[in-house]
Predict the 3D structure of the following.
Amino acid sequence: MPRRIYTPEMQAFIAENVQGRHYSELAELVSATFGIEMTTSQIHAYASNHKLTNGLWHKPIQRQSKRYPPEIAQFIRENVTGRSMKELANLLNENFGTDYTTEQIKAYTSRFKLRNGRDCRIKPGAIPPNKGKKGYCPPGCEKSWFGKGHTPYNKQAIGTVLMKSDGYLWRKLGEGARDWRQEHILVWEAANGPLPKGAIVLFKDGNHENVALENLTLITRTELAILNRYGLLKTDAELTETAILIAKLKHQTAQAAKKSKKRGKSNGRK
């Protein structure tokens, strides 16, 4: 469709006659006055582009719900006060022969912000129904209780070493849940003392099951980050040792450059 050209006369006419008229009515009026074919959508677009309004408020069309027809919706609104959602659903089904569930009524009232006015909070001074009880046990449940001194079938003895889900070997040192430590760290500490802060024990050949002392080496977390960044971690022990030397050199170079930059700034201020 070719672009509509609006002459100054047409523009003035639309501006003078838009107030109080629907766009369909204005389109017919413009068409009759100027002998042209003007559509409602063209008038609407023109008015919108030139910020012209007809001053008419168009009430949105409310679509009728198939699930909740007007008589059902009205019944819910009139009977929601003071009733639980279950009571309201039962009352509704009894009166209309329907099969609404409690969840459907709950969803409807929530959507339309209908409140039943009931306060379900525990009142001050109320006695909890389980006060003085240690739990509910139906008759015969005591047959499945563990006897005094019972040992679970999966209990591990102190000193047990096993592979956990993280892929590392762990050794049990006590009966507490936290009394487990990684085996390779224990091996390294037995020969070298406590693990320094900020350091880790690395497997030279990448095999987490090879906890022999000669396969373990101590590096800092910064050096590990450099190894990962440059893809220097290897599965060959000799290559790993070379990669660690490269990582240490890169770290030292970066530290030296950082100190030099600080000295340069300090001299510049002087």
